[in-house]
């Protein structure tokens, strides 16, 4: 549910009033790895990756207060938590951005979806195009006539109980990087992510206090060293 104009003004005012020490402490708290060229952080759920049109409270803005040299490479949805990599100079930004264009980085997400989906250990792929649907902003939809394909690999990890409801824990690996791809692909197979404020309804929405989607693993080549590097963030749900 979007914030009201009054709430946005309040949040923006609070953010601008924080002292520098707040932003340095925040940066330290979310840092997973940092060197002269890259900065890997663990984004909290509920925080924008970059400033919105009206809401000026985001991960990038906070990191810039701690280190003005930080540069954006990719994003996570506001409701999603987990690993993001930023560059600390233009050369590193260019190198890693090119890796993303060439689909070299390997990303794995952990999610919990509503209901019992397939058997534990089952693996497969979902290959259906996903596009933005203006009439239901901010939703995206599956459109088989859309020209840009979207591919997600999955593995069923466990069936669990969440507040008296059966849910399925899955590992999701996006091969493409369409907006809302993982969320829409789960809707497509009939098992919406629990706690999803955009796509879930009824029990699927209310049994979890947040979207159960977490960017758990990230692997890519260091922009200077050229070596593959791996990072992992434990699932918070």
TrEMBL record:
<comment type="function">
    <text>Dual specificity enzyme that catalyzes the synthesis of pseudouridine from uracil-746 in 23S ribosomal RNA and from uracil-32 in the anticodon stem and loop of transfer RNAs.</text>
</comment>
<dbReference type="Pfam" id="PF00849">
    <property type="entry name" value="PseudoU_synth_2"/>
</dbReference>
<dbReference type="InterPro" id="IPR006224">
    <property type="entry name" value="PsdUridine_synth_RluA-like_CS"/>
</dbReference>
<keyword id="KW-0819">tRNA processing</keyword>
<protein>
    <recommendedName>
        <fullName>Dual-specificity RNA pseudouridine synthase RluA</fullName>
        <ecNumber>5.4.99.28</ecNumber>
        <ecNumber>5.4.99.29</ecNumber>
    </recommendedName>
</protein>
<comment type="similarity">
    <text>Belongs to the pseudouridine synthase RluA family.</text>
</comment>
<dbReference type="InterPro" id="IPR050188">
    <property type="entry name" value="RluA_PseudoU_synthase"/>
</dbReference>
<keyword id="KW-0698">rRNA processing</keyword>
<keyword id="KW-0413">Isomerase</keyword>
<dbReference type="InterPro" id="IPR020103">
    <property type="entry name" value="PsdUridine_synth_cat_dom_sf"/>
</dbReference>
<dbReference type="InterPro" id="IPR006145">
    <property type="entry name" value="PsdUridine_synth_RsuA/RluA"/>
</dbReference>
<feature type="domain" description="Pseudouridine synthase RsuA/RluA-like">
    <location>
        <begin position="38"/>
        <end position="186"/>
    </location>
</feature>
